[in-house]
Amino acid sequence: MLRFQEPTPEDLDHLLTVAEDHDFSYSDLGSTRAGFVPPGYSHDRCSLVLGPDTCFDAAVSGLKHWAAHKHAGARVFPDDPVSSGATHIIVSRVGPLWVLAPVRLVFVTDRLHHPDSFSFAYGTLPGHPEQGEQCFTVQSKSGGEVEFEVVAFYRPGELFAKAVGRVTTSLQHTLTRRYLEGLRSHVAAT
Known about the structure:
190 residues
């Protein structure tokens, strides 16, 4: 959903209530968990090293609390830690427009079974400018470094996004890079 006015808390409450009643807006649910990018979508796969193993806990904590998004200039409503099945609205400003993007958490990994990594993915809901999924992973690599990777597959969802498809693809690339740098900034500040 695109708007020219900043959304009020009441606007976000209403959008969240509506979003919670909808199913995902795409059929390839959970594909990012296996690293699979389904055909018919654009995709991104970007990563960067956050630092040595000593930053792993700070990176995981930051990712759980949306630091990648917040440091990239986005707001997350509600501002609760990631939880599988939870619905959120990602609010970003792009020039004069406010982008309100309803998403639902598809999965959150369990550190008990994956002690060297943490990840979550969210999928788009009706009203999101795109259709698809985005996965965020922090992993302690065997070489003693912590890596942050973002994998996404997407295609235009709303009529406006379809009309300006190349712009939305460029915007997705930009946001992916901002998320990477956002978590790096969070880790550096802790």
